[in-house]
Each structure stands twice: as C-alpha cells, then as structure tokens.
Amino acid sequence: MPTRREFIRHISSASLVMLGGSVLKLTPTQAAGFKKDIVLRFAVASDGHYGEKNTDYVSFFETMTGNVTKFHQQNPLDFCVINGDIIHDEKDFLVPAKAQLDKLPVKYYVTKGNHDKVSDDYWNAFWGIPVNHDVTIKESVLLLATTSNEKGEYLSPNLDWMKAKLEEHKQQKNIFVFIHIPQAKWAKFSLETPAFLEMMQQYKNIRGVFHGHEHEEDGVKMIGAVPCMFDSHFGGSWGTAYKGFRVVELMRDGSYLTYIMNPTKKINQASF
C-alpha cells in the first residue's frame, strides 16, 4: 500500500460526500485521514474516442488501462465503468477498443455515448448487455443508461426504465447512476431535462450521478443534495490538459471520498 506521504503527494482537491448529500472539500492531508474502512472502491473513465483522426488513441487507451492497473495494485478496485464515447463514430473501432479495455485489471461496465454510433441492438450484441442495465455489487446498485442513438443525437435517458429501476432498488443502501451526457445545462454540450433532475432528487439512496461528454469538466456539481461528477477524458483531441480517471471510495459509514487521478496524481477530491 502507498505511504501516507505518497498519497498526499499524488492527490489534490478531494471531496467527501456525507449521507444526506453534504459535500466537504478536502486538502490532500485531510483526505489521507479518510483512507480507512473502505467497503467499495471503483474507477470511472470516459471519452477514449478510439479511432479519432490525428490523435494517438491507441496510446491513450494503453495509458489509461496501465494507470488503472498500477492504481489497482496499491488500491484494489472492485470494478470500473467506462462512461461513454469509447469509440469515435465508426463501429469497426469497437473491436480494438474492447481489446484494450479487456486489459483492465477488474470487471468493467460500459455506457453508450454520442460518438458510439451503433444501433442499440448492435451494442447489446457486441457487449452482451443492454444499453440500459443495472448491476448490484456489495449492497450498491449501478444504473447504466444510454443518452444517444446510432445518429449520435443528444438524448435524455429512458426515464420509464430509470424510474422502474429506482423503484426496484429503493431498499438498497446506495445507487450510483452513470449516463454519458449531462442532463443539466452546466456546459455548452449538456442537455436540460427537468424530469430527470427531479427524479434524481426523489430517491434518498441515489448517492451520485456520473457524467462524461464534457472533456473540460472534472469537478462536482449538485442537483439538490445529489452530487454529479465529471471525469475529464482519457482520449480525444480536446479537454483538460491532462487525461485521467475518477476514483470513488465508499466507506462503511455511508460517506465516500472521490478524486481524480491525473493520471497518476490525485486531484479534484471530494467527499460525500
């Protein structure tokens, strides 16, 4: 395991998310004090854009999977989520992109983004899971939903499906929602879907919503008491100066620490 000094050196701007939704910004030193009693740890990355012209997309994928593997060796992960825009428009890139993602050291789940331009049926057959699906891991539920179609249009998630799954899992301790395109107009490429925003506030066990899409965003925004988190990007031709991934560490008391690895330095930490 990394020493306290190593952890502090590699992290900045963390957040602690408490039960009830209050968010505390932490310094690296403060964050180091919460590295105890973790019951679930996962990583979220998005926007690899495999196949985008004039980018070193193979290297981007290799760097991400390599850095997640190194992180996992010192901080064991339970799973990863690749939150959309795995490829850049052409479906033939899915095969080599998946081959790279298969190098991840733990099981991973995927969502469909606007540059993943394949039909829902093709996506379902390729990955062996529907574009909208749920997973239960250690008393926590993941709801993973598409926000686009074969044309690459910006869409709201299927709210009927989302509502049914939230009802089905309303007795679970924690629900984490993963959708590629943000549904609040926080940035120029986001949507505005009031019904989704209202739904997220109706279930107290929704602990966080995770977005990709906005490559320049790597922070935490709020829908009422629900944190909405971004993870910058690990590929593509634009965005934050670094390419990284987000880590979430759920603790036994229900709070969780979250931060960005940049790609091997921790930044933008938050705790809930």
Unreliable stretches, pLDDT < 50, 5 or more residues?
A: 8-12
Write down the oligomeric state.
Answer: single chain
CATH C-level category: Alpha Beta
Alpha-beta content class: alpha/beta
InterPro entries: Calcineurin-like_PHP, Metallo-depent_PP-like, STPP_CPPED1, TAT_signal
GO molecular function: hydrolase activity
Protein name: 3',5'-cyclic AMP phosphodiesterase CpdA
Domain Calcineurin-like phosphoesterase: 40-216
Structure, described:
This protein has a single domain, classed as Metallo-dependent phosphatases (Purple Acid Phosphatase, chain A, domain 2, 4-Layer Sandwich), CATH 3.60.21.10. It has seven helices and 14 strands. β3 (38-45), α3 and β4 form a beta-alpha-beta unit. With 272 residues, the chain is α/β, with parallel strands linked by helices. Mean pLDDT is 91; it is low at 8-12. Helix content is 23%, strand content 28%. It comes from Chryseolinea serpens. Pfam families: Metallophos (PF00149). Residues 40-216 form the Calcineurin-like phosphoesterase domain. GO terms for molecular function: hydrolase activity.
